Amino acid sequence: MAVRDITLGQYYPGDSAIHRLDARTKIICALVYLVSLFVVRSFSAFALCIVFLAVVIIISKIPFKFISKGLKPIIFLIILTMIINLLFTSTGTVIATLGPVKITTEGIYRAAFMGLRLVLLIFGSSLLTLTTKPIELTDGLEKLLSPLAKIGLPAHELAMMMTIALRFIPTLLDETDKIMKAQTARGADFENGSLKEKARALVPLLGPLFVSAFRIAGDLAMAMEARCYHGGSGRTRMHQMKFGKGDALAFAVMAVYLALVIVSRQFDLF
Amino acid sequence: MQIKVENLSMIYSPGLPYETKALEDINFTVQQGEFLGIIGHTGSGKTTLVQCIAGLLAPTGGQVVAVAEDGTETVISQKGKEAFQVRRSVGIVFQYPEYQLFEETVMKDVCFGPKNQGLSEDEQKARAREALDLVGINADEKGEASPFDLSGGQKRRVAIAGVLAMQPSVLILDEPTAGLDPKGHDDILEMIRRIRTEKNMTIILVSHNMDDVAEYADRVLAMDRGKLMLLGTPREVFCEHEEELRSVGLDIPAGPAFLWMLKDRGLDLDDNHLSFDDTADEIIRALKK
To answer: What are the E-state strand segments in A15-140?
Structure first.
C-alpha cells in the first residue's frame, strides 16, 4: 500500500556519527545548509553543496535509495517548477518557439538550477529527520526556541504539539490503511474513476478517519491529564541534552562549509 | 467455493531495516461450508494471512486460489475481472469493524456494499434488510437511526451486516468479539453459527479465545511467528499438542479438554462443539446413564 512508503519525516535507525550528534546541532546545521542553497548562484558552487551532502550521507550510513524515496511525493512539484521556469523565462537566446511560448537558454539553465536546488533542499531536510528521532527533534526545537519564551512564544506547547503530531502520523497511517482495506472489502474503489468519482470515494475513508482521530485525541488528552500534565513550567527531563566534542566539530565543519559557499560567489565559473 | 493457500509468504518492507517476515510458506485448504478457527499470539501473522485470503494484500510469494464449484481456479490476488468477482465473494469483517461506519443512517451504511456491486436501489434495500435481520437488528426500528448513536454491540452488528449484505460465500472475521461484554460476545458467536447454517457459508474466524475456537470451529489452525504450526480438529490440536501450544503463549480450552479426558477414560460423551455450560450438562447426563 502506498501510504506505507512515505519517508519524508521518517527516522532511519542507526548509530553513525551523525545519528549521535545533539539534535540542536543537527537542526542548526540543517538550517545553515538550507540557507547555503539559497546563497549559491552557480552550478560550480552547487558542486560543493552536493559533495558536502554526499559526505554526510556516507557518514550517516543511510542507503541512498532510502533517502531518494523521500522525493516521490514531491516529484510532481519539482517537475512543475521546472516546466514553469522553462516556459516563462524570456531572457536569453531563443532556441525554440511554441506559439506564444519561447524556450530560451536562460530558461533551460534556470529550470535545471531550480530543480537541483529543490532536490538538494529535500535531501538536506530529510537527512535531518532520518538521523534524528522525532522526540529528540522536538526536544531540540523546544530548547532552541526557549529563549523566545520570554517574549511570549509558547515554545513548550509548540514542541509538545509537534511531538504529538509526529507520534501520531504512523498511527493515523495505519488507521487509514485499515479503513481503506475495510471499505475496499465492501467494494469501494479508491483507484479508478474520474476525479469527481475519486473525490466522492474518499467520503467512506475520511468520515471514519476523522471519527478515529477525535477518539484518539480524546483518549490522549485524558491519559495526559491522568498523569498530571499541566504544561511546560517546572517539567524536568529524563534525558538532558548535552553538547559534546562531536558537536563542536560539526559546527566547525559547517562554518568552513558556509565560508566556502560564500567565497564561491566571487568565482562563479558557470 | 474452496480456498487453497499455496506456499504463501509475505514480507513487509523488504530490504529495509524494518523488514519483517509476516508469513512464511503457508499451505492449507479450506473446504466449502467449513468453519475454520485461526489462533496465534499477537503478531503471529493471523491478520496478514486473512487479508491475503481476502485479496486485500498481494503476497510476496505463493498464492491464494479460489476453486469454484465447477472446478475453475482463480488466483485471488491477480488483476482482471474474474479475480475481482471472486474477491467480492470473500467477505471480511475487520477488528473493531464499527470504526468503518460512515453513513448518516444505518440503512445507507449497510447498502454501501450492495451499491458498489451495482445493484438497483430496491435490491440494495432488500439485501440490507436481510442482512440486518441476520444480525438481529430491526430494520424498521433502527434503519433510519445514525450508526453513531447505537451502542457498541449494535454498531458492530451493523458493521457485520454491511459485509453480509454483499452475500459473500466465504466470511472472514478477525476477532469479531474483541472489546465486547460476555453477553455481546456470546451473541455475536451464536449469530455467526446461525448465519453459517442458514447460508451454508464458509467461515474463517480469527480468535484469541481458545474456548470459542474449540466450541465453534471444525478445524483449528495455529500460527507461530508467521509459520503454520498446527492444523487439525480442535481435539487433535488442543489434546495432542498442549505443550507446544503453551510454549508459544497459547492456551488450551478448559471445558473441552476436560471432556476429552473423560472420554478417553471411557465415559460415553458427545464432545462436539459444546459451550462451557453444555459441557457440565453433558457430564451430568453421561454420569446418570
So the answer is: 94-98, 101-104
Band of pLDDT at residue A254, cut at 50, 70 and 90: very high
Binary contact (A187, B17; C-beta < 8 A) = no
Q: What is the pLDDT of residues B238-264, one digit of tens each?
A: 888 888 888 888 888 887 778 888 888
Contact B56 A66 (CB under 8 A): no
Cβ–Cβ under 8 Å, residues B146 and B67: no
Quick check: B56 and A207 CB within 8 A? no
d(CA A36, CA B241) in angstroms, rounded, equals 66
SS (H, E, C) chain B: CEEEEEEEEEEECCCCCCCEEEEEEEEEEECCCCEEEEEECCCCCHHHHHHHHCCCCCCCEEEEEEECCCCCEEECCCCCHHHHHHHHCEEEECCCHHHHCCCCCHHHHHHHHHHHCCCCHHHHHHHHHHHHHHCCCCHHHHCCCCHHHCCHHHHHHHHHHHHHCCCCCEEEEECCCCCCCHHHHHHHHHHHHHHHHHHCCEEEEECCCHHHHHHHCCEEEEEECCEEEEEECHHHHHHHCHHHHHHCCCCCCHHHHHHHHHHHCCCCCCCCCCCHHHHHHHHHHHHHC
Partner residue facing B112 (CB), from A179, A186, A211 = A186
- The chain A residue lying nearest B15, using CA atoms, is A66
pLDDT, tens digit, 9 for 90 and up, residues B141-186: 888 999 989 988 899 999 999 999 999 999 999 999 988 888 889 8
The type of residue at B117 is Q
Are B127 and B108 contacting, i.e. CB atoms less than 8 angstroms apart?
no
pLDDT in tens, B26-82: 999 999 999 999 999 888 999 999 999 998 888 999 999 999 888 888 888 887 778
Cell numbers at A258, concatenated: 558556509
Query: Residue A268 has what pLDDT?
Result: 62
Angle between helices B182-199 and B121-134 (to 10 degrees): 120
Query: Given an 8 Å threshold on Cβ–Cβ distance, is B99 in contact with A208?
Result: yes
Q: What is the ipTM for the molecules in this complex?
A: 0.81
With a CB-CB cutoff of 8 Å, which residues 5-64 of chain A face chain B? 12-13
For residue B87, give how far its alpha carbon lies from the nearest alpha carbon of chain A (Å): 8
Confidence of residue A1 (pLDDT cuts 50, 70, 90): very low
* C-alpha atoms less than 13 angstroms from C-alpha of B62 in its C-beta half-sphere: 18
Decide yes or no: CATH 3.40.50.2300 for domain B1-89+168-237: no
- pTM comes to 0.73
Neighbours of B231 (CB within 10 A): 18
